[in-house]
Specification:
Blueprint (H helix, E strand, L loop, with lengths): L12 E5 L9 E4 L6 E5 L3 E8 L5 E7 L2 E6 L8 E8 L7 E7 L8 E5 L8 H25 L4 H7 L9 E4 L16 E6 L3 E8 L10 E7 L5 E9 L10 E8 L9 E7 L6 E6 L5
Parallel strand pairs: 1-9, 2-8, 3-9
Antiparallel strand pairs: 3-6, 4-7, 5-6, 7-8, 10-11, 11-12, 12-15, 13-14, 13-16, 14-15, 16-17
Length: 287
Amino acid sequence: MAQPHTSSPSSEVRRIELGTRPARSPSEIFVRPGGTTVLLFDRALAPDAVTLEGRERFHRVVLAADTLVLLPSDKLKDGTRLRLTLRYEDGSAPREASFLLVVAPGQFDAQVEVVSVSPSVRDERTETAQLEGELLRLREENARLRAEQGPTGLTGLFATGLLDEQGLLGVKLGQYHPRPQSILSRGTRAHVFRSTSRVAVALLLASAGGHPPWTASQATLTDAMGRRSRELRVWQARPLTDDDTDVLLILETEAGPLELHEAYTLELRDGKDSRAIIIGPVRFPRM
């Protein structure tokens, strides 16, 4: 029986168990544009046995023995749902595995282990060695795929049109005024940036103390009417502990030169606490 998805951070290995009978509905696997998702199977897959809806919206679909690597392009948008079906080589039950690839804000599966039956208890040292070997191989594969995407750094930005002769525009936001019970102190600093097709918020988080390690998992811009304007991609250098004063947090989303010109409120949430950290007003520079 396929297991339901329960929001896994990209640093974790998610596990899906398939029964011998087809599931009523395929398991969901969360992907995101520009993010590499790797599916590891416990049985060999048949060559050229991948059926992927909307395959033209992926930079890479690489099948190798018992592994499938997916690298979606920016053509995938929030709410996209694509069916993926693979056939096993040995023909035993289950003969194939089906999944739904889903794009949703704050959800991403970087690595998924798919087993066709519940495995017996393995020797812990053997399993650890196998996982370490797989991790090394996947890192090498990811590095190769990134290299094939083209130039990086400023060269890559100019080559892809993300920068033009105006460069990257940035301004510093005013001093942060924490709300009651906020985990951030007044020492938190923020800058906002705009390129030809993207905007970003860069924060140096300063802790107010008295809280467990905190990592942002969701960032939302809301307008003056309280309506959600945009979900932002989140990258945080490390968890914020109660004595940190300079943890870098980068938030980014696509936006053309004529978009996102109002004053917005930024809401930050982690994966454990429903309370939001509120920062604002946020105004992006104009090109």
